[in-house]
Amino acid sequence: MPAAPAGRALLPARSRADLPYPHNATRRGFMLGSSALLASVLLHRSAPMAAAQSKPWDDVAYWAFADRMQDQLDRHWDGRYYTPTKATVNSNLLLTHAAAALAGHDGPARRDDRAKTLIKALCEGPAWVTKPTDSSQGHKPGWRDGIAGGGIQHLVVDTEIAWPLMIAWQARDALGLDQATADLIADRIISTTKGSFWKWPTLRLNQINWYTRMYVAAATVGGDRKDLQNQLLEQVRRFVDGVRKPMAGATVSNLGGGYRFHYLPGAVERHKYNLDSAEYANIVLGFLVAYKQARDAGMPPLDSARAEVVRAWSERVLSGYWTHAGYLNWDTGLGFKRWHQGKKLGLSQAALLGIAVCPELAPNQSWAKHLLDRGFELFDRWTQRDRGLPPANAFSVPSIDDDEASQVLAAARVQANAAQAVLYGLGKARSEEPPPLYAYDPDVGRLAITTPTYNTAIVAVSRDAFPYGGVDIARLFDGQQDVAGGVGGRPPASFGVVVRSGGKMIAASQHAVAGGSTDPLELLEAPRGIGNNPQPFPHRPYAGAFKMLRVRGTARANGIAIQTTHRFEATFIETEWRVTGAGGKVIEAIFPSWGSRAKVTAVNRRGERRAVTDGMSLRDVDWFHVESEQTGYVVVVEGGKSATKPRPSKQSSAPKPGPTLTIRASGTTIKARIAPAKTVDEARAIAVQLVG
Fold first, then answer.
1. What is the pLDDT of residue 516?
2. What is the Cα–Cα distance from 360 to 311, expressed in whole angstroms?
3. What's the confidence (pLDDT) of residue 397?
4. H helix and E strand count, the chain
5. How many other CB atoms sit within 10 Å of the CB of residue 140?
6. What DSSP string runs through 322-343?
7. Are 241 and 383 members of one domain?
8. Where do the record's region annotations for Disordered lie (predicted)?
9. Rounded to whole angstroms, how far apart are CA atoms 266 and 338?
10. Domain boundary among 428, 461, 486
11. Considering 5, 41, 51, 384, which has the largest number of Cβ atoms within 10 A of its Cβ?
12. What is the Cα–Cα distance from 105 to 97, expressed in whole angstroms?
C-alpha cells in the first residue's frame, strides 16, 4: 500500500473508558435472578456471531466488504455508466474505484478503466452544466443528477460528485490520469465552489456539511486554502452560534434543548419537520470529516467554547440516533419522506466517520468505529438474506423513492463509506463496543435506548409527522436489528395498554400527542438529569452510557388515566401500567409481533408449549414467546387473567403485523418484562431468569 498523501491519514484518538453493564436489580412483584446472570445468558447465547461482531474491521475487512458490494453492483454497469444513470450513483462508485487505486487494493472494487470513463463523463458529459436548470436549486456552474442527461440540481449532487472527483485527483498517478484530465477535475471543482451558490455567506437551511466538503475539495485540488478559514470555519462558527438561538434570518435555533435537530430553522418550533430528524442530524454532523481534513491542511481550530457545543451535540447524535447493530434509531419529523430510506442511511454514516476521525470535536471515537463496522455487517447480512441488494426502504415501510435508483444508490453510498474508512485510517483504529446508551429530549418526550441486546425508543410527541408514538415503547429490535415486536404501530399493532368499553377502545397508552406537551415524560432515574423539565442545552447532554433508566409517562382520554413506568436495563425492559378511572371497563396489555409467519406461544412451568387461543386462562402459563419472522421476545406478565392473539390489519407504520399477544388484566395494575429471544432454546433460557 502506497504512502498516504498529506492530509489523508486521519487517525482518531482513544475514547474515554466505557461504563460497566447494569448492576443487579430486583423489583417488588417479580422475584427474578440477577441482571448480571441474565446478561450473561443473552450476551453469550450466540457465541459465533458475537465473536464475529466484536472483532474490529481492518483494511482487509473493509475492502472485502467493498468487493462483495461490487459483485452486486457490477450487474448495473452497461459499458459507459452504472444504471440507473444517476450521477450520484456513478460518482459514489467512482469514489470506491479511486480509493481502491489510491490504497493499492487489488480486487473487484478497483476498476481503473471505469474510473477513467466516469471522470470523463462527469467532467465533460451532460451532467456538467454551465447554465442553471429550472429547479429550485438551479445554479452555474455545477452538476445535475443525470450522468446521461436530465436530473435535478441540488446541494447533494454537487457535493457527491466533487468529493469523489477530489479522491480521483488524489489517485491520479495510481489511475494513470494525464495532466489534462487532472487539471480538468481541478477546474470543475474549483469553478463550482467559487460560484455564488456555494460562496460564503450562502447557506441552505442549516446544512453546513455540503459547504464544508466543497471548500475542502477545492482546496485539495489546488484552490485557495485561505477559503478553509474564510469560508469553512465561518460556516461552522455560524452553525454553532445558532445552536441555542436562531441564526440571522431564522425563526428557531439549529438544535432543540436536548440537542435534537431542527430541520427547518426558518419555520416555527412546532412545525412537524422540527420535531427531530435522525437522518439530517447525522448528515450535517458529517461536516466533521471535512473539518478534520481542513485542520490537517492547516486551518486554525474552532475556539474552545464552540468546540464544547459540538462535542455535546456529537455525543447526543451517537447515543440517540444509532443502535448497537449499526443502524439508525430512526424517528424523523419528515415521516415517510425519509423514514428507513437506505439511501439516507448511507448519507447518515458520514457522522460515524466524522466522530471516528475527529477527536477534537467528538468524544467516543472507538464507539463510532464499532457502530460503523456493525452497520457494514448489517448491510452485508441483508444482502445475503435478500440474495441481492437490500430493498430501497427497510422493513417494508412506504417511504418515498422506493425504486431501483434508490436501492442502487444506497448500496453505492455504503460501499463508498467503507472505502473512505480505509483512507481515513479506521482499519488501524481502536474499536470498542459501547455500553448501553440512551438519549433524552425532555421537550418532546423522546427517549432512545440501545444496548447490545435490543434497541427501542419512546416517542411521546408526534406533531402528526408520523402515525405512531405514545408513552410506551414505539418498537422493539434485537441486537442484530431484526424486528422483534414491530417497527412503529398503533394499537392493536403496538406495545402498551388499552381500555375497552363494549369492545370499543376508549383509551390507550400508545397514543402520541400531536401538537406537543409541556411534560410528556418524566425521567425518574438516569445518569444525567431527572424530572420532566431539565435545563436546556446542558454542558453534557442528557445522553450517554447508562446502568439503569426509569421513566414515567401518563396518557389520558375519556376520564381514564394510564400511568406507564418503564425500567430499562442492558438485557430487558420492565413496564408497569396503572389505570385509573376505568371502573367496569376492560383493561388489556398488548405485545405485537412482526410478519406473516409470526406466532405466539404460551409456556407453562413444565416447559410445555402451546399456541395461545382466545380467552386462554393464565392459571397454567408461566411465560409467553412472541416469535416474529427473524427473531422474537419473551414476555413475563404479572396481573393478567386471560390471553388472546388477534391479528391487526396492516398499517402504514406497521406494514407487516403479526398476531398481537393480548393480556386481559385481573385488576387495574399490570406488569410485564420483555427480552429478545431469537430461538426457542434462547427463549427458554431467558425465561428461566425472567421468571425466577
1. 52
2. 8
3. 97
4. 18, 22
5. 15
6. B-TTSSB---BTTGGGTTTBHH
7. yes
8. 640-663
9. 20
10. 428
11. 41
12. 9
CA distances to 267, 453, 572 from 677, in Å = 44, 9, 11
Quote the CA–CA distance of 231 and 217 in Å, as a whole number. 13
Q: For residue 435, give the nearest of 20, 13, 14 by alpha carbon.
A: 20
Q: What does the pLDDT read at residue 513?
A: 75
What are phi and psi for residue 507, nearest 5 degrees? -160, 150
Q: Does residue 441 share a domain with residue 407?
A: no
Quote the cell numbers at residue 159: 457535493
* Residue 160 identity: E
Domain with residue 201: its CATH number is: 1.50.10.10
Does residue 256 contact residue 244 with C-beta atoms inside 8 Å? no
By C-alpha distance, which of 374, 478, 465, 354 is closest to 420? Answer: 354
Same domain, 104 and 238: yes
What is the count of structural domains for the chain?
2
- Say which residues have a Cβ less than 8 Å from residue 197's Cβ, sequence separation at least 6: 137, 139, 142, 158
User: Phi and psi for 89 in degrees, rounded to 5?
Assistant: -60, -50
> Taking Cα atoms as reference points, which of 145, 163, 162 lies closest to residue 154?
145
Residue 477 amino acid letter: F
pTM over 0.90: yes
Burial profile 97-116: b = 16 or more Cβ within 10 angstroms, e = fewer? bbbbbbbebeebbbbbebbb
**Whole-number CA gyration radius for the chain:** 26
- 683 and 554, same structural domain? yes
DSSP for 482-544, written as a single string: -BSS-SS--TTSSSEEEEEETTEEEEES---BSS--S-S-EEEE-SS--BSSPPSS-SS-SEE
Cα 423 to Cα 412: distance, rounded to the nearest angstrom:
17
- Parent domain of 285: 57-428
Q: Given the DSSP bridges, would you call strands 573-580 and 454-459 parallel, antiparallel or unpaired?
A: unpaired
CA distance 548 to 597: 34
Task: With beta carbons less than 8 A apart as the criterion, state whether 660 and 588 touch.
Answer: no
Q: How far apart are CA 143 and CA 279, in angstroms?
A: 24
Closest CA relative to residue 656, chosen from 676, 627, 628: 628
Cβ–Cβ under 8 Å, residues 489 and 648: yes
Nearest to 652 by CA among 386, 464, 403, 409: 464
Integer Cα distance of 675 and 687 in angstroms:
9
Taking the chain (692 residues) in runs of 10, the rounded mean pLDDT of each run is 32 28 32 43 39 75 98 97 97 98 98 98 97 91 96 97 98 98 98 97 98 98 96 98 96 97 97 97 98 98 98 98 98 98 98 98 98 98 97 97 97 98 98 97 94 98 95 98 97 98 96 68 90 82 97 96 97 98 97 97 96 95 97 98 97 98 97 97 95 81
Report CA-CA distances (Å) from 492 to 254, 328, 499: 36, 25, 11
Length of the chain (residues): 692
